[in-house]
């Protein structure tokens, strides 16, 4: 009789954010926030209890980039999902905490065991869903939160390069870029696809 290995359970986390762009003479530029360690991404964060995904996206964009709801013109009918799983490991108490979305994190958070000796806290298996909306802004000035180290506005090719380690994020960016190009190239349809959210 062989013993089966225990099945690792996954904790589900749902986040939301905006792919923010602004129009320039060179073409649309996309806002990317810098988390450190060559990690660039869009403003996003966990959905709080009793909060809808769109509310969370507006809140997180305000918190992380300083862009208020009235500064964003939301694209109608654009909502994309990024799904992935990873193993979250914890750090030592007192050391700088890794960014919440960083996947490549070394262990260890130490906790007191029953006999006063430190022990490793178990890593968590996370199944993550991130919901992205698309919004245009005219405001190039960003006020980043303390969890970020910087930001930049990138044209599409440069933004793709900055996110080259994260294929899922590149896919979201491509969908946003294609959407913006299609809206610009089809003005005769008569439908306003980008509108100011109230």
UniProtKB/TrEMBL annotation:
<dbReference type="InterPro" id="IPR000086">
    <property type="entry name" value="NUDIX_hydrolase_dom"/>
</dbReference>
<dbReference type="InterPro" id="IPR020084">
    <property type="entry name" value="NUDIX_hydrolase_CS"/>
</dbReference>
<dbReference type="InterPro" id="IPR051325">
    <property type="entry name" value="Nudix_hydrolase_domain"/>
</dbReference>
<comment type="similarity">
    <text>Belongs to the Nudix hydrolase family.</text>
</comment>
<feature type="domain" description="Nudix hydrolase">
    <location>
        <begin position="11"/>
        <end position="177"/>
    </location>
</feature>
<dbReference type="InterPro" id="IPR003565">
    <property type="entry name" value="Tetra_PHTase"/>
</dbReference>
<dbReference type="InterPro" id="IPR015797">
    <property type="entry name" value="NUDIX_hydrolase-like_dom_sf"/>
</dbReference>
<dbReference type="GO" id="GO:0006167">
    <property type="term" value="P:AMP biosynthetic process"/>
</dbReference>
<keyword id="KW-0378">Hydrolase</keyword>
<dbReference type="GO" id="GO:0006754">
    <property type="term" value="P:ATP biosynthetic process"/>
</dbReference>
<dbReference type="Pfam" id="PF00293">
    <property type="entry name" value="NUDIX"/>
</dbReference>
<dbReference type="GO" id="GO:0004081">
    <property type="term" value="F:bis(5'-nucleosyl)-tetraphosphatase (asymmetrical) activity"/>
</dbReference>
<keyword id="KW-0547">Nucleotide-binding</keyword>
<protein>
    <recommendedName>
        <fullName>Bis(5'-nucleosyl)-tetraphosphatase [asymmetrical]</fullName>
    </recommendedName>
</protein>
<dbReference type="GO" id="GO:0000166">
    <property type="term" value="F:nucleotide binding"/>
</dbReference>
